[in-house]
Every structure is written in C-alpha cells, then in structure tokens.
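Next comes one such specimen:
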Amino acid sequence: MSKKTFNIKVPEKRKDWQKQQGLYFMIAGDIWESINQLNRNLKSKKIDYCLVESIALNLHGYERLTTDVDILMDGENLARFTRELIGLGYRPAFLGAKKTFYDTKKTRIEILVTREYPGDGKPKPISFPNPTEVLTEIDSLPVINLEKLIEMKLASGISNPGRFKDLGDVQEMIKVLDLPLDFMESLSPYVQDKYMELWSGASLDTYQSEQRKSIDLDR
C-alpha cells in the first residue's frame, strides 16, 4: 500500500519573516550566512546532503530558535566532507569529533548519518534516510521533506525521554501548518499512534484557545 503524499502550503508570513527581522530571532544572522556558505561549499564539492532538525522546521514554516546547523549525509559523503573541507573553513568541535564541527563563524554543525537511528540510537523501524531520496528545495536550499522530518522527530521523542522537545515540535507543526489527521498515513506505522495523540492534543488546544477568544470578545 503506497503512502499518501501531502502538499502543505507554507504560511505567507514565513516567506519574508527572515528579511523582515534582519536577525534570526534575537541572535545575529551569522547562522544564515553559515548555512548559505555551507551550501555553496558542499555543492562545489558535489557532496549530497539536506538540512534537518530546527533549520528544517523553520524552512517548513515553524519558527524555532536555534544556534546549530544540523545536516543529513550518508557515510560516503561524510567521509568526503571530512577529507575535502576540514581545514578549509571547518574544524572538529573537539578532539576526536567525527560528526560535529565549527565553521569560521563558530557556528556548530552537527551531521546525522544515513542508516543510524534517531532518539536513543538503538535499532528501530525508522532510521535516518538517504538525503537524496527525501529532500525538497526551499529558498534554494536542500531540506528534508515534511513527512520525513516529522517521522524522525516522532521516532526520536518516542524512543528517548530526553528528547520530548521533538514531540513538542511536532505538535507545534500540526498547529502552525494546520496538518490534518490523515497526514499520519504518510508516516511509518511505528509513529502513527503518537502522531494521532499529538494531533488530538493540538486540536483540543486550538479549540480551547478559540473559546477563550470568543469569551473575551463577548465581554
């Protein structure tokens, strides 16, 4: 049975929020310079990747503060990144670091690797995918598609109690993008029940907020 695909429209307000702010929320815009420079460097070396985690959330329409850049690569491209770009604008974040780096602006870059597992890192039905199979382009940047982003967030929050914020991110995405309940049909069965639970909670919260607004207007 093939999974349903969704075309979720990004709210118009997100399309220019970055330009309107001039800053990335309350921090300097260096992170966006880092992202664009990283994109240029990786493209010039033909290294496949896509943006994930908080930067991907922002690009899909949920404004979330972060100071890190998280990207997804397979093992071969990670090896090429290490071989061809370390020492040329990028350095290990600490002695022996293999997947965590800093650029010249001291922006932290975290690399997730294809076939490894989200959350607790233990084997589960969901692993990090190959970026070439799940990316979409937003603002000329390669970004993990919404279905896989949410799937990874759910798998992380389900398996690791220390990653409950990932479940919170999904619930906020449901509210901000007005995701339907049947969006879960595009997700792995491993996370569908949790999506349904979060969707129900988001719907209740939205209903209660609207009720409070209605009461305030009647006063």
